[in-house]
Amino acid sequence: MTQHQPADLPAGREHPQAVTVAVIGAGMSGLVAARELHKRGIDVVVLESAARPGGRVLAETTVLGSRVDLGGQWIGHGHHRFATLAAELGAGAFDMHTPKQPSIVEGDAAIRNQGRDALTVNAILLVWEIVTRLGTPRSWKQRSVRSWLRRVPNRRARRLLEILVSVSTTADLDRYSMHAFLAMVRYQGGLTAMLSTAGGAQEGLLTEATGTLAERLAAELDGKIVFDSAVTALHRDETGVTIHSASGTYRADKVIVTVPAPMAAGIAHHPLLPTHRIRLQDNTYMGSVYKAIAVFDRPFWRERGDAEMIVLTEPGMAVFDTSPPEGPGHLCVLIAGPEARDLDELSPDARRSTILGPLAAHLGSDILEPRGWHEKAWHRDRHVGGGYSALPDIGHEEGYFPTSAEPTGHIHWAGTETAREHAGYIEGAIESGERAAHEIITALAD
Ligand SMILES: Cc1cc2nc3c(=O)[nH]c(=O)nc-3n(C[C@H](O)[C@H](O)[C@H](O)COP(=O)(O)OP(=O)(O)OC[C@H]3O[C@@H](n4cnc5c(N)ncnc54)[C@H](O)[C@@H]3O)c2cc1C
Fold first, then answer.
1. What's the pLDDT score for residue 6?
2. What is the domain partition of the chain in residue ranges?
3. Is 30 a pocket residue for ligand 1 (Cβ < 6 Å)?
4. CATH no. of 6-55+212-283+395-445
5. What's the rounded mean pLDDT across residues 272-283?
6. pLDDT at site 202
7. H or E segment at 244?
8. CB atoms within 10 A of CB 100
9. Atom 1 (ligand 1): residue with closest C-alpha?
10. What is the fold of 116-195?
11. Within the chain, how many helices (H) and strands (E) appear?
């Protein structure tokens, strides 16, 4: 267990900058929390360790002038806070271009949707849904998803299930228990909700890209965000919190920490945090995920079929057609877990051909010549630490959604992992930011 001793704390400068509320982290939850407080005239500062806002959301502009998301992007079914915020900030939304079912491919071969492999997978998915409802055996707390899947006799079915679990959660399957996975499935409202485009978590997109929302929120908070300002220590006492950061020392009446628990372990606390918070930090890890978007003049593949597919060949990947209506072609690829980290060893050119090469047989050889290429390995981002979210390590339940948001003195906790609904998603980040801001508004009014 990592114990943060008071001796770790830096001395700080004599006269800290006074502020009513300090928000730690300028991801979606921190930006939303700060906006809520600022709207009510409450003096707020946001301390962000990176040089940009957004955290796990990040947009880039393509060579064709379109915008693509390297981080969080989809508005899921029922993500009404996200949809409302996008509309408020003037972002246009569109529905995903999606087939009824993705194709499943291995090498040059397409696997039949009604074949033996697909039927085995569907039967196992059904068993998981039933177990989720009836209650997961306790012994599955120590049983990794990888070891459970070893019992599936059909190799292709096993491989497809591995990729479905990995890409939907970004977990390392050796480090993720069946109990934790099925708890996640139950919390998210079932596998269909997690895996589907229409009616599920991947329903809609923003034309301007979701990262633009973070940029617009940051612009509204102009002058209130201090970048390159990693918080290293928090001293809390009866009247407030003294914050030590790379940009200096601050004194706040209230603090909102939005940093996910495994990353927040790098912040020293005096006095020590309660045991349940230390356990949460120590027993969770950030998922590993690599995302790429290939950009084309138009989504030419639609002339021969849909691009949405699961690729079984290593690296296993999920491919989506995220092209905006009447815009250029955007082909989005997600690779998760250890297979995402393996890509780090390759040169950028080798990585691109490793990813696009297997798609040529299915989408046409033009796929090998994109006009633009955008990629990001989130597990290598030292500020964010990975994504989509923090995950419980095998044998531990502290990281199950939603994680504890019980305030610790004048410190309030936000971040997507703490959301009551849709934790792990942008919707959850927004919910948590609003909730923490309102806790503080109420406390300050008392
Ligand atoms: C590749 C990828 C794809 C995704 N796809 C989707 C999707 O399609 N739809 C969806 O809804 N969600 C998606 N997600 C998840 C979604 O992006 C996150 O749930 C959400 O952005 C989390 O926001 P947050 O504010 O809670 O945390 P974060 O965005 O992680 O914000 C925390 C901030 O704290 C900062 N920080 C860390 N340590 C410190 C410190 N010591 N001091 C100061 N600042 C610090 C970080 O730099 C970061 O900016 C995806 C995530 C990834 C990575």
1. 37
2. 6-55+212-283+395-445, 116-195
3. yes
4. 3.50.50.60
5. 97
6. 84
7. strand 241-245
8. 9
9. 71
10. Guanine Nucleotide Dissociation Inhibitor; domain 1 (1.10.405)
11. 14, 21
